[in-house]
Design a protein that fits this description.
By secondary structure, the chain is mainly beta. It is 0% helix and 50% strand. Strands 2, 4, 5, 6, 9, 10 and 11 form a 7-stranded mixed beta sheet that branches. The protein has a 4-stranded antiparallel beta sheet with strand order 1-3-8-7, with no helix packed on it. A hairpin with a 4-residue loop joins β7 and β8. The relative contact order is 0.32.
């Protein structure tokens, strides 16, 4: 039974930081690339960051230099450290297993003054 459980979302002021966590179960975590996606109201889901099985990382230009994706295979977890948050980062953030894909339920991030 594949499960992806996100946590760490919340309300933060512009310029603040949040750390999202995703705990995976039900599959061989270390064998899969993992991603964070996000979706704002009225918009399509977009890729935020991906970390591969060999620790290679990619980011959308919208977050490069502000967000960091990481993983801890011993804990079956993937993280997204978000710094210098902007109002346009407001969205539901999803933890996603790649190839084949599996989506978590998401965690809300709201950046507002």
């Amino acid at each position: 039974q594949v499960q992806l459980v996100e946590s760490g979302g919340g309300l933060v002021q512009p310029g603040g930081s949040l750390r999202l966590s995703c705990v995976a179960s039900g599959f061989s975590f270390s064998r899969y690339a993992m991603s964070w996606y996000r979706q704002a109201p009225g918009k399509e889901r977009e890729l935020v960051a991906t970390i591969g099985t060999g620790d290679n990382k990619i980011y959308t230009d919208l977050v490069k230099g502000r967000f960091t994706i990481s993983r801890d295979n011993a804990k079956n977890s993937v993280y997204l450290q978000m710094n210098s948050l902007k109002p346009e980062d407001t969205a539901v953030y999803y933890c996603v297993r790649l190839s084949p894909g599996y989506w978590g339920q998401g965690t809300q991030v709201t950046v507002s003054s």
